[in-house]
Structures are given as C-alpha cells and as structure tokens.
Amino acid sequence: MSKRRLKFSKLGMGKYISHLDLLRTFQRSIVRAELPVKFTQGFNPHQIISFALPLPIGVTSETEFVDIDFDEKCSNETIIERLNENLPYDLKIVSATEPKVHPKEITYCQYVIKILSEGLEEEKIKNFFREKEILAMKKTKKGEKEINIMEMIKEAEIISISPDFAELKLILSAGEMNSLKPDIVTKSLEKYLGIDEFESTQIHRTKIFYGEEEKIKEFC
Amino acid sequence: MYETIFEKILTKVQKPARYIGNEFNSVHKEFTGKEMTFAFCFPDVYEVGMSHLGMKILYHMLNEREDTICERVYAPWVDMEEEMRKAGMPLLSLESHRPIKDFDMVGFTLQYEMSYTNIINMLDLAGIPLCTKDRRLDSPFVCAGGPCAYNGEPIADMIDFFILGEGEEVNNEIMDAYKEWKGTSEDRNTFLEKIAEIEGVYVPSFYDVEYNEDNTVKGITPNRPCAKAKIKKRIIKNLDDCFIPEKLIVPFMDIVHNRIMLEIFRGCIRGCRFCQAGYLYRPVRERSVDRLTKVAENAIKNTGYEEMSLSSLSTSDYTCLKDLTDKLLEFTEERKISLSLPSLRVDNFSMELMERTQKVKKSGLTFAPEAGTQRLRDVINKNVLEEDLLRTAKIAFDGGYNRIKLYFMIGLPTETDEDVLGIAHLAEKVLNVFYDIPKEERKGRGVNITVSTSSFVPKPFTPFQWEPQNSIEELVRKQKMLKDAIKSRNITYNWHQSTVSFLEAVFAKGDRRLGKVLISAVKNGCRFDGWDEHFNYEGWMKAFEENGVNPDFYCYRKIDHSEVLPWEHVDVGVTKNFLMKEHDKAYAETTTPSCRDNCAGCGAACFGGGVCFE
Prior knowledge:
By secondary structure, chain A is an alpha+beta fold.
C-alpha cells in the first residue's frame, strides 16, 4: 500500500456538500471506481481517507487535498481517470502525488472573493484592510469567542473595483491552531461599509500554504 | 433565471445539500423545448422523499425515454420556504432549477395522508392554481399516484388525474397520449378524456358526487361517456419483465434509507385485516432469484453503497429466500456490504436466517405482533402465536441480539383493556426469555425491549373500513394505562400522537368535501403534519370549523355495509363482498389462512397472475 495525495476541485453546487458528506462521497466513488484501496481492520472496516483542510460550506475551491492509501501497483493515472469517471459532477481530481508535507503544517489559505453590491467604495475597502483591529465573533468547539481578524489576514489585495463590484484576493490564517473563515471577513466588511448584506458574495479557495511568514510555500 | 437568488438563499438555510441536485446518477438532460417535461414531486423533505423506492423506479423509467425529461422536486423545509417566499422565488426542480410551473406535468406521490397539506403548499409555492377548475391551457397537468390515490377524494379538487396501481406501464401510456395531444390545439379536457380510457387512470372531474341529507354519499356518477363506472387499478403481471433501476441516485447527505433497496416481491399473502397495503397490492408476485441477483450486483457496482436491504411487505415469505441470500452473500461479503432483511415474521424466523443478516453487521431486530392477546391477534388475522414470538426471542438472544423492538397497535376493533395490558405482559415474557438464560451464557451487556404502539386507523379497502376509530381521549387513556403497566426499566415504551392518528383517519376515509378544509389548513399554517414539531392541531380544528365540516363524521361512525363509500368507484381487485366476509370473520374471531395455504377467493385473481395461479 502507498499513500497518495489527490488534489481536487470542488466547484458549482458542490460548495454545499458538507465535510462529512464529502467523505462519504469519496468512499462510494472509490468503490464504484473499483480501485484497490486499504481498509481498516476491525468489526466495521472502512477506507483510510483523510482530508488536508476542511472547506467551509458555501466556498468553492480549485485546490483541495485528500490522502488515500492505494495498492502501490495502481498508477496515479489510473486513479485519476477512474475516480473522475465516478465522482459527482462538481468534484474533479486534478493531480495525484506522493504526500510531501503533513497537513498539520498548513498555515495559510488564499481566497478570491467576488462581491456584488451597491456602494462599494475603493477607499473605504482599503481603509478596512488598513485597520489595526476589527473584532468579530468566531464559533469554536466550546462556543463563541471574540477575535481580532486583522491579526489573521496576512495579505489583502483589491484585484478590481467598481461601485457595484469588487474582487479581492486574501491570504488568511489556516490550520488547526489559528484559522479565519473567509465569510467572517466579508461579514465584517459589510458591517464596516454600513451595508446590510451584499447582493452576492462568491468565495473561492485558490491556494493552500505551509511554512511561516515570508517563507510560505504551496502545500503539496 | 433564479440562480442568484437561489444561491443566496442556500447560504441561509440548514442542510443546503437538500436542494442542490447533481448527485451521482441523477439525470441532467438538456432542455431543447421538444421534450415532454415531468416534475416528479414528493410532498416531504428530501431525506424522506429520496428514500422512497417507487419514485426511484418511475424517475429513472421516465428518463429512459428519449422524448421525456423527468426531474425531482421535494418539499422545501420550513426555513427554505420562508426564504423562498421572502425572495419571491417559486418552487424549482432539483436538477435544472427550473420553475415547476413550466413543466408539462407535475406528479405527486401520495404515500401518507398527512402529506396532503404539503401538496397544496407546494402547488402554491410553484404558482400553479390550486384547483383543477382554475387551471388554464398553459398550466401543467397535476397528477397523483401511490397508495393514498385509491381514495384520493379529499384532494380530488386539486388533481387533474389519478393513476391507480403500479406505474411502470401506465405512466408510459399516459406520456404517449400526451405526446399526441401536445402538438394539437385541443383543450385540456380533450387530453383528459383520452387518458380516462386508459385502465388505471381516474379523472375526478369526470365524476359527480351526490350526498344524502345525513351527509353520507348517495352516488358517484360518471358525467361523460369516456369515464368508466369503475376504475380498475393496474398491476405488473410479471415483475421480472418490467423496468428495475440499477443506476440509483447516490445522495450527498444522509437520508432515511441510505442503501440499496432490492424489491423482492409485491403484495402480501397474509391478509392482516387492518393492513391496507396487504389488500391494495394483491396478488403476490415474486421476482426470480436470477433477476434479483443480477440487479443487486449491478446496483452495487453503480452506486458504491455499503449496505443493501431486501424490500417487501414480509421478507420471510419470499419462497426462495435461502437461495437468494446465498447468492447475494457470495458477492456482498467479499465487497464488505452488509445485507439487511427487514419485515421478518416471528412464525418463520430461524437461526439460519438470522445468521445470514449478521454476517457483516449486527443490528437490532424488529417484530410486529400487532396485538397483545391471542384473541385480538385472531380478530385482526395476524396469524402469529405467542410461542412463535418467544421462540424467536430466544434465538435472537442466543445469537447475541440484545435489542428487540416490538410493534403493536392500540384501538383495534373489539379491543378491551385486557388486550392493551396484554402488550405489557407479552413484552415482559420476552424479557424473561433473556433472564431465563443462565447468567454466564448471556451475551452482551444488558437487554432492551422497545414497545411501540401506533393507533389503529381504519383504512379503505380493508375489512375494517367500516369500523370507527377510538376517540382521542380513549387512545390517550389506553396509552397511559399501558405505560403504567410496564414496570421493567429494560422495557422502553413509545407511542404515536393520537391527534395525528385522528386526522389520518379523517383523510383516509374522507370525501371531496374535505378539499376546502385542506386549503384552509394550509392557510392556517399547517404543513409537515407528519413531523411532531410542526403538527398544528389548532390550525386543523380551525380549518374544519371555518368550513362547517365535522371531522368526527368521517372517523367515529360505524359504517353500515350497505352504505355507499366515497371510494365505491375504485376497483382494486379485492371485492367488497370479500371484505364484508372478512369483517364478519373478525367479529367471530376466526382467522383466514394465507394465500399460499388456501385461496380465500378475494377477487385479486382477476388480474390473471401471481400467487393466484401458482
């Protein structure tokens, strides 16, 4: 058996598939694809599958990772081809490699966010990202706690802006210890701009990083 | 057109996966404008509707046709409905997210009476006129099938046509007729007149119902030549020859029955006198082991499911069950797929059968003695003996099953307090079977017996259709009495809300005058009536009052055999004469043997197939 790291995209309506449902979807797709996969021992055997980093519901992604144990004789090409024939429409395997970095080392994620709304002023949005402190509530396992989201935004770039449309690129803290969900940023931005609710907010994950500060590298 | 609103709404509701479609094996066809379009609606939430076998069959069967697009629609949960109404978004289909009012046909499956308000609410959300008389040339045709369609009178005002019986053939005949009509400039009634001639199709507006002064039905008369005096249900004579879906949709989210359901036969040989399904689906017809084995293997390959369950009204009555399970286990074991055999009877349960089901995974066992005393079991023709149950319990405990569920009914005809208390005694006897096992030989930790009672609801086309239901107070009294009689902490008692059972009885045996009550109930906020947390009894009572309809009339009267019933014009094969005889035999506490032991001449032989000719 050898562990493979599959990079996959989760697009369209697929953004509403929850983490648990995604796990089940992969398990059944692997069975349909009749790929030789390792099962756990014991009374209720199941496949050994683990995702690198959960994706929040409502967010699309072109860069998700899942580790699965396959028979070493099974080539990466076969895995990609057969799995893509058997995955639902909105999920697609992009590549397969040997895992190099442990998911625990993930530190940041990049998101591209498209906002449709009236009253989007460039200067105000810039000011928002210049703030030293913006407080927001974050759901944790134990309940809610207040956090300063500015400490968790590594980079923010306005890709394009007009009075009714904005495209932002953000690099946010991610990983087990310290992570910021992108919708907390967009909700805080709404509040900051005095807008009740953006007409539409599309969030797309484009990169996952590991390493610290100036030396971050793409997860692989 | 609604994509932006739709996406925005989805961020605000629980379990958005209910509404997205795109599951593996779902059928997404391109709309070119030439196809016939069918919106297949299940009037309950996704997790419930997606678990229903009949809908899976007919959805895939319609989509096999190149000229037809069939898409699914489920009732939006209350949070979704609220957001939809706020945003002005109509009811959309799951696959293409198109408004269902743009479909040619909108079909509902009627699985239980308590889903009627959801039908009306869904039509309203779709923007389709609620009543047939208000629909125009560009409105879809609204049709309905399933067990409640056999007495669909309470929703007759809203349904353009009913389909009675099994749909595998008749649905295709209806689509063929629609194809011919669609190109013409004829009015809606021309189409309905044409399909009224197809066996199994019932167009309610082609029948006039007259009432007597005492509110009973005087007569049901066809008002045009195409309308037959009696509408006969359809069955599939040979179940091996008909379409069986093998590319089942695999949902993302967990649903109520999240597994392959392998339908091994239709009908039931038993004839329990309260059971509507036992009469509606006659005659018994089995599928062959060969056909089932192939279907099962393909379904497993196509879905990747980890569990398969045999589906029928009474699994252990399948004549080749050993052979079938042998063949299925050959590939399910190897693939680590667990096989479950629900609906087992205690009178033909064996160690061997049990071992088959537990080879991969062990779960609880459920049996349905239905009544607490032998006398009452004879009345209802549940031909199960106490020693059968105790013998089965012994086998189960010896095999390591420590959880047994027992289903009973309260409020059955002729029931006395002694019968009700008999339920507690029977449960205790089952428990004692466990304690009689020497301590060192007992398996597992502890034991639990769950007793569940539902309340008897008299149903059309059963020998008990003439019977009154117990009053709500009486049912509550019996539930309390039983609860107090159960002493052991190892017995858990669950019961159904009696107000729901009351409404179920009213609508099961109701007539067309209940249509306006349903519309009022929806206005009063009633929906998802089968869900305890949404059941709104006050809303219902107000609806009856607003329309001057007394619900007690429908469920608390002992009906005379000579009375014209609201479903008198429907023919299910089983004759009224047979039902009357069975009704009399119930009072004589005389049982009727199963179809395989001795033909009782119920009338289902008129279909020319199944067990009647074995």
